[in-house]
Protein 1
Amino acid sequence: MTTRATTARSPWYATPVVAIGILLGLNGFATMVEWGEWLSTVVGLVAVVALLIIVTRLLTRSRLLPTLVGAATAVIVSVPTFARNEDGGAHMLPTPSALRDLATAVGDGVHEAATTVAPAEMSRPLVALVMVGVFSAFLLAEHVAVSWRAAAVAGIVLLAPWMPAVVLQHRVSTSALIGAIAAWVLLLALTTRHTGSFTSLSPWAAGTATVATVALVAVVAPTALGAAGWGAIPRFSTPSQLDTTSRLNLALDLRNSLTANSAAPKIVYFTSGRRPEAFRVYTLIDFDGSAWSRPDTAPSAQAPLDGGVQWPAPVNGWEDRELDRVSVQVLSQAESSLPLPPVPRSVTVGGDWAYFPALDEVSSDTTSTQNLSYEFEADLNYFSADALRSLGSAAGQDPLLDPRYLELADAIDVDNVGAKAREVVGDAPTRYDQAMALQEFLRDTQVFTYDTSVTPSGDDSVSVFLDDRSGYCVQFASAMVVMSRSLGIPTRLAIGFLPGERGSDGESIITGANAHAWPELYFEGAGWVRFEPTPAVQTGARPVYADPTNTGALNPFDEFPIPGQGPTTAPTAVPQPAEVPGTAQSGDSSAAPPWWMWVVVAIVITGLVVGWRLMHSRRVTAARVDDPERVWAWLQERLPHGFAWPDTLTPHESEAHVRRALFADAMFLSADADRALSELVVAVSDHRYAPQGATPSFDSLKDDARIVIDEVTSTKAPDATGRRSRVGGPSAPRRGA
Amino acid sequence: MSHPLPTEAELAEVAEVTARMRQSIGTVLAGLDQAVTATLAVVLAEGHLLMEDVPGVGKTTLARALALSLDCSVGRLQFTPDLLPSDVTGVSIFRSDDHRFEFRPGPIFANVVIADEINRASPKTQAALLESMQERAVTVDGQTRPLPRPFVVVATQNPIEMEGTYPLPEAQRDRFMAQVSIGYPSARDEMVMLDSHDGIDPLTQVRPVTDTETLARLIAVARRIYAAPAIKQYIVDLVTATRHDSALRLGASPRAALQLLAAAKARAAMAGRNHVLPDDIKALAVSVLAHRLIPSTEARLAGRTPAKILSETVARTSVPTEARDLPPRREQAVLPGTRVTAV
């Protein structure tokens, strides 16, 4: 008997308010998903579940049962909507296999959410995942707010869907936000226990509502209203499900790319042979001593992508070279230039892309790399140590180059850095040997420490770095740029990605943690050559041509060259997305019963239940119009909290309970109310236990109950003159046992 | 309903007579409303009463005051370790003048039997008394002799922890309808007591207020009190709860349920009501049920007495508004005595 009736009926009318509050919360995901037809599915299913919860609440006073019914309904309606067997057919009934398929769909949704780029197109598994979240939040909030009348606590649940917008500092619809807050405040009002007059909010509830509203507005509203958000709000590292579009930071604070979002896959690629040692995205030339910047104007010289080789220097015998074919799919990385290896290559890409030889970038003003697939063929062995050594003298003249490549900002302590550079390179005879000396100097872990927690400081960050000897790739690369420039070698900075991890299916995955920066030195006749001054802890091995210990056999990144796949074999197919969302969804809707069918079913069920209840109550009204039990229950429900008696008390004990509760406030019932209460007790007691009860009329009993309720509630609340007590006449003598 | 409901006049008589008895007992022992109510309820339900308490609080005095208030035969048994069964039931002796055995009835052949310190007697003698309590008859020398009606045994005993006692086995405790504890009187009641006992023994002042025939009539009236299905449901809920309580090793027996109903009817009759209220059950539940329950070792070590456990059970059991566990309709339709041939 643990789930026996509670003392008062739950405020069922609050359930739709919870549903509205939760559904408005979907706006918190506004920038992460694409709105579409799936929204009506969500709304429809929530409406069905809410309807059945309301019906259950009307039929029972149990606290747990309506939530259980709601949960069961949620599963039942989800099965035909989301569960698909292996042939793609829909399940109509929640059989064990259907439930398994439903779980599979949700699991797929989790996987898709982790791999898809925002804004995500809503495929069936993604909608199933959203549905799980919506149902959980709705059932939890509804249970807390309606069953237990703890709407303030339920506000935490209502707040949850807005958190992504708060954390990611996205814009949300202001009206939706205000609507959600209004729903919550309304919920607080509706679920307050009766304290007599219907409309008055208890001070507790009103206070909580005010505080919570202010808090909610303060946290969410600045974001919603388009402000920059709260600078003080810490940037949480978002879990990969909530991952959104990212960009390399051109102001060159790569730390964020290296630490936050570091686990989320950004780029996936397949290669027919070896893997590139690096993917360069941007080339930077201007360094003011503490930060790098892009030129304001794009270089004018550009070349179309005509299938030929893209490289700033002429490449001999391109067609005869050993080319590796690489298929790249960019996920959530939105850049204006393609990630490409810093070697001669030929890019095949759809869309408005062009080659800019000055920066050696393939970029576009109109499109971004987000969700882009492209291929390129590259000669990954283009450079060799011997060839580079033979090129150019140590401080050669490069007349065709822009002098900016040698420019050192005023803030830089050129004398100090230059002296250091000269000391490092010593009497190295060639430009290559000088570069190698600088690279090995910076890579020496005895001297320098790799540390992403270092904050670049000062106007001359390179000098600071050379003193502190601690930093991450940007500092290492900048140091090498400045040092080699001080030696008269044209140098620039490249930022992009390291080649990433190998996946299980032969693909390679580049994550945020692979973001990287490195220096590129100019060799007349060869082009811009990448060196790797950052220690191996982040970068792995040196480039093949820049490794003093390497004899040049293998690309060190290719631990496992794929046998039988020569460089000229057919390109590996671009990885297909697991499912094309649009088509999948349209296929689903034809197989599944539309959601509105469930609404119809729910309405029919509701109609039947309401009809049955009406008939039943009419029969009851006809047969037992004088039922004191109903009046008794009504009285119990309407009495203020603390006056209503538990079900373990007999009617006579209940009477004593009410009197005692009044007496605790030093109050008594007036003679009239006293008589009314005693009459009611005798009536209900006789009705229950006597062989033939007295039959007072229903109306007179109801009047009695009303007198008692009015008396108790008005006595409970202070009256107009501020007096708390209202002493009535002497108590009527107790009757019965 | 086979028995007609008691009339208002009958109920008024019950209320009036029991009020007089209560007043009569009250002249001897002040301030024992609860114990006296339970005692009178047991008498009206024709059950047997067990009074357990430390020596000197008035167990025997209450028993004697009750007996003296009734104009009926009273048997008095002082139980000692050497008391024999025949000392209780009576014995057949040989009459040499007409050469036959003649039965000399023992003290048990009386309307009210006061069995003092019942747990001082050997189990054999206890068994002789308790058997006759249940059967309301005595079998001596192969001949069964019915005991006079009404037949009420009021036994007193010291708590079993005291020295020189043979504790009553559970089966025999179950024979008693109720157990009451008198407890120490309040300071005011004790002052009244000292006052009233000053000089004279108040027991000598007690005069009978009713006779055997009246008492038998009252008992018959109490049996006819109406108990609604909800009331029976309440009793079933309570005894079932004791059987499933983890703090109890032994719950209440079906006999306990029957006796609780009988006692509740008697209490309702005393209040002049023709039907039982759950309040009657609540007032009597501890008296009627507690002495039959055996707490588990954990509960005993935690200091939870059966009475305390039972009070908690009563406090958390909902008062039914209607019967739930009614037998199925077909079973109900078969009247007693009707033979069911077809299956």
Protein 2
Amino acid sequence: MKFILCLFVISLFVFPAFEPLVAQCTLTGKVMDAETGQPLSGATIKLDLRKTGVVTDSNGVFTLNTACEEHIINFRHVGYQPYSIRFMLYGKLTMDIEMEYAIDQLPQVVVSGQGSIRNIETPSLGVNYLNLKSIAKLPVAAGEVDILRTIQMLPGVTSVGEGSNGVNIRGGNTDQNWIYIDNMPVFNPTHMLGLFSIMPADALREIQLYKGSIPARFGGRTSSVMDIKLLQPSTSKFKAKGGIGLISNRLNLEIPIVKDKLSVLLSARISYNEYLIKFYNSVLIDAQIADKPIPNHRASFFDLANKVIYRPNLKNTFTFSNYLSNDRYKADGLFSLSEGLDDHTIFKYGHKNLALRWNHNFNDSLNFSLTGVSSNYSNVTSVEEGNTPFDLTTKVHYLSLRPEVTFLPTPRHKIITGAKMVRYGVSPAKLEPQTGSVINPFELPEEQAYETALYIADEFELSARWLVEAGLRGVFYANVGPYEQAVYLEGEPKTPATISGFESVKSGGVEKAYFRLEPRLAMRYKLNGFSSFKIGYNRMNQFLHMISNNTTPLPNARWKTANRYIPPQQSDLLTLGYFREKADSKWEFSTELYYKWQRHIFDYITASGLQIIPDIETQLLNGKGKSYGLELLFTKKLGSMTGWMGYTYSRSLQRISGDVPDVQELNGGEWFPTNTDKPHSINALVNFQLNKYVNVSFTFTYSTGRPFTAPVGTYRNEDVYIPIYNNRNNSRISDYHRLDFSWSVNPPPRKKNWSTNWVFNIYNLYGRKNAYSFFYMKSKRGLKPYKLSIFTIPLVSLTYNFKFN
Amino acid sequence: MKNIISVLGILFFVSLTTWQCQYPLDDIDQPEKQIFLVVTANFTNIYGRILVEYSSEEIEGENIPFNNPPPLDGTAQVVDSQGNSITFNINGEKNTAFHGVPGETYQLFIETEGKEFESIIETMPQKPLLDTVVSEFNTKSFLLSTDRLHHGFDIIARFKDFPEPGNYYMWDWAHYERRLFCGFIEIGGEKLGLPCDGDCFNINYNRELTLLSDALVNGEFVDLPILRVAYATPPLRYYLRITQKSITKNAYAYFRAVSSQTQSNGNQFDVPSQTLFSTNIHCTSHPGEKVLGVFNLFSSTDKILVIDREVSYPNAARIQDYPEHEPYHPDNPLISIPSLPCGPETRYGTVIVPEGWKE
């Protein structure tokens, strides 16, 4: 901790700058992409060649104070041609600006790609904006543009390894992140058991990742929120784009139905890689080009993202969004029940999500929206074994309704208030025998819970230097019946043997209720026109938990609503930040120092069985966690060579004591590293725009190996030699590093409305066999350590993209 | 352009060959070393046997697995519900004076190294209803055609679970094979095998655990694959003795944990490696001391299976195995070939012709 404090303090001295501030005036407007009509968030607006300015919000809207006289206004956004205009301001003026995409000078700043002034101006900390157009040109694995893989280039974002099912933000677990696609939450963010993320990049408009300052309108997760918006289909022009890749094919259509009133987005991505495996296993093996078959795997997936926008008038907008995904993955030996039936497994899983939104604009300072969401995630795990084949179904159903009001009493004062009602329905396990199976059917009862939150966020300027965003979220949570809750003997560990009885909760009755207040605060102190200092604090609670003891969760991981024995997880995050840009906006530097406390986290008892056990609390051990770190980011945003480099020092630790520490505590009750603890990481990206048509990118990533549990000895039981494990996470796997390469070619369009693009990728350019895990297997002389590596040689791919406007 | 795509396609396919691989590690340090007391206590309807020893602090090397620390001095007692007790050495020798009775309760007491241990009271389960054991020839298409188990026999145990819930099973197998040589003679630097004097058999045992709880199959007939035998000769007849054990809930929990530790295949969804210390034995003299092993009280049923690997199957070539050493053939036919005795009776070798043996 001392180390990172020193680094943070040093960074403040290395990049100091103080100069007088400039006064500001008022103006309102909206900034959009000229080609797509999509609102551009993070565009910077400066008046009269001043160094200070404002930035657009997530709807592309800006408000600026200025004197009523003639001005020169300048608009900038990363990846777009700057735009300036001289105008005379009389009274109230609304100004809508369409910015041209600047492909020949596109800065490949992808993940910190919002205008740097935004970092300096806003009070937010740990908020990242992802530029979708730039992401498409980054090196990728197997030709698939992958949002989750890309955000791992950000400071503070890691995973347990390639192919992991989700990301870890600032030391948190994968289930501690909300991922919303147009307000619809997703419960499994990947296809093919973690190889590719589910977000169809063609259909996305923007991504904002909140890992520090989380606005009061979000709650229910203790680590982060990833807010993904689908494209708003053009209401005036038909547009089509798509691509052909080795893993999947994509098609994206924007169809105006009624000009300026009704339009539809249809986006589909379908994988067809089963033929690759068949081809590989038959042709290449037989031809002895390859010597090892892909064992009994079958994999396919699709996703559909659709959106309908109806604007009957300027005041009202109705939006219908839906997202469907489906995976089918067959593999051996990935899953077993503790009852001893396992082996050939087929996972069939996906989302069926939809959202309806009504937005009513009363006037320029008052807006109302109402959003209803239904999100269904289900997984069917089929096991085909002897005369015991079965299907195991798990489901999560999320329903929510959110009214929200945005009020701007003055241009320097913005209030957002609203409510959110959520119903969680969880079917933990339904086991059904297949035809001819001798399996007995079994079902765990559905769990239901309600979460109601009221929130208010107030952003106001105290002075020219101080900007404050204060928020408060009050949450009432109730776990409701019908419910049979085990009751345990006082002072005893919760085990099946210490169940003293069962308490019956009738339908609609409250088994356990919690009320939680979540203060949020972010403050900016502007040192001068190009640097600022910020401080932020968040409290978050999580009422729905994923129960999974795998290194990375399987699609059939169980979800659990909080109850009397599994209280809501809670985190407190304190962040300090310093942001600075060079006067010519070419360079940007930021540093963030954070400390996070976590309560009511849990780990698992040894040899836990989680899938179909009724009283799941008997398998869990309570504890607390802490994580802290320092994140540094340098960005070069303009010029023919652009890029960025980030360094993160971070720790993630936990102390697991259980209910009866003398019996249950892990690692002697001491703090020990979590699976996501990777102290050092470096991520770098460099992009060369060779000419108007050719772009070359390299990305490099390095991180300390994550912890794993190594044996402390062996013993035998008859002829079985068994490793002995004692303290958890007592060693580390080897460090990870990888270099990727991407070459993107945009040939000059031959037809007016038709353009194409080729992207050639080499993932893991120098073919490092990075370890995903270390494990031990029997050998002639005891136990031999092995490492599992994924993507072990350079992975070459080529993707063809097209666009029709 | 077509050529470029073809080359890229091939590169991609080749990339897939190693998209997920396991590599042995030679330079990994063992972060800490610890030893624990290990109790292997098997008590059945026909014998009792208890071995108490220390675990090894090594995980790999010359001393593993055959030279574990020697058994400890001490005694053990098993006491039934009537207070009758039988005393055992703790050196691993079978004591046939013990005949467990299904339904009877037993408790184990151990004294060694100045410490006292006791088990919880366990009830001996009923003898399992193993109906038949069959072999089914098939081809595993997902295995490479050169893999030994590509063509082979699945050995399936068919049994009926007891009607009442809460039964737990475990299967062991022993494979008997006539020993080819009982000694060697070195001629011209070449090692040549000498025959055995009479019957002599090698015995191999399972080194993985097959377990089942009846929670999902209560009262049903269950077919459960136990192992897979390659379609290979010699020998033409593959002899197996399959043992089905009814074990206690605590033993099941213990062996289930052992199974997950030892049968990790290293995939990205592995559960973390953790050792479950004994589920039913604890140290009474030093309460904080962790002990490994389990008081395994079980009753068992055996079945003999002899697989005839001489039978031909369409589209399946039998693998021909060759002995590691050539047998000794003297140049002069008048010189008799010396034969050697089988050696001491051990767990891994015997002169006793196994029940149901077929050449």
